[in-house]
Automatic annotation (TrEMBL):
Domain HTH merR-type, residue spans: 1-71
Entry keywords, A to Z: DNA-binding
SMART domains: HTH_MERR
Record organism: Larkinella punicea
InterPro entries in the cross-refs: DNA-bd_dom_put_sf (IPR009061), MerR-type_HTH_dom (IPR000551), MerR_fam (IPR047057)
One Pfam family hit: MerR_1
Domain of life: Bacteria
GO molecular function: DNA binding; DNA-binding transcription factor activity
Descriptive protein name: MerR family transcriptional regulator
Amino acid sequence: MLIGELSKQTGLSRDTIRFYEKQGLIPVGRKERRFNNYKEYTAITVERLQQIKRIKAFGFTLNETAEFLDMIEMNQASCGNVSEKIADKVALIDQKIAQLQEIKTLMTNSVEKCLQDCAPANPDENCPILTSDTFAEQSQVKNGSMRVGY
């Protein structure tokens, strides 16, 4: 089947399929190409993409997904091994939630302080949340110099 049909069967865009292929998550060898150089995908590729979708639905990164796929290929994806990896991911998610909660609290407190102390007295000045080291120092102390980026 061609990439358009593969896209329909898996619900993934053509670009996503091509990206996964470039990342080595789905192999397509020379023998799987037509005379016009169009790639011919098989039912094995459909199953592989469905596995990727299932793993990604749990929030795993592409690198983690590749590890799971390797485990499947080496017949090492036992319930114990998979459960351990999922438990590790849950622990990381719990840490991230705690960090984000700290940031939310800091931001909420900063806004409240700014609205109480700064805005009424100096409505036209730059907000000290962005210009004062005091706010930055509070952020580093409360968050251990943690930076959350997306």
